[in-house]
Amino acid sequence: MDHHVNQSGRQKVDADLRAPLRWLFAPRCVVCGDPGLPDRDLCAACHAQLPWQGPACTRCALPLPQAGICGHCLQHPPPLAAVHAAFDYAFPVDALLPRLKFHHDFAAGRVLVQSMCAQFAGLERATTLVPLPLHRSRLRRRGYDQALELARPLARALRIPLRPELLQRQRATAAQSTLDATARKRNLRGAFTVPTGAALPEHVTLFDDVMTTGATLHAAAEALRKAGVAQVEAWVCARVA
Q1: What is the domain range of residue 45?
Q2: C-alpha torsion sign, points 115, 89, 54, 202
Q3: Are 60 and 76 in contact (CB under 8 A)?
């Protein structure tokens, strides 16, 4: 029998086998469990509830009535040239992020990455995406870095070089969630460093899962700028208002 016919036949059989599998393993919504949208683990109703961020401060991503620069950033310019958040920290994102961060729920992370890709695709691309690192002691306890788990597929989808080694967390700090704004800044003083001799791009976009006061991102941006990076921006999955 002709080899081309054999190959064509095998392809048809493979396609026929995959068809019922697509039905058997159709996407399920990671929020409510209902059938998901095609190629997405989120149903139409939960997708409609995603809290996409609207008008916000261009320097800190704090929600505003209209886009611009908030009063605080005008009076105290931050070390970040710009911050872009995909979402406000609200349902269902405020449920999905903790599931990824504390419960090894990578399906929740996949949904967030799919949504962030759509939100960030039209932004100016930096030469490098750098996820905020965990200190090695916390990484050992948790087993994975949630910012890196989100940044890796995001960088791949948007074709941005990913350089997690460009920023290191040299000091184990207290959990930021337990501190007020002043203590957060003090807690992060000298927490980040750039390896000596690292090849530095001119433009870096930091990535983190959640931005609250911005103290962590600011400390990382200051370390990069001190090392010689000309422009540092940030992308975050969600911004706490």
Answers
A1: 1-49
A2: negative
A3: no
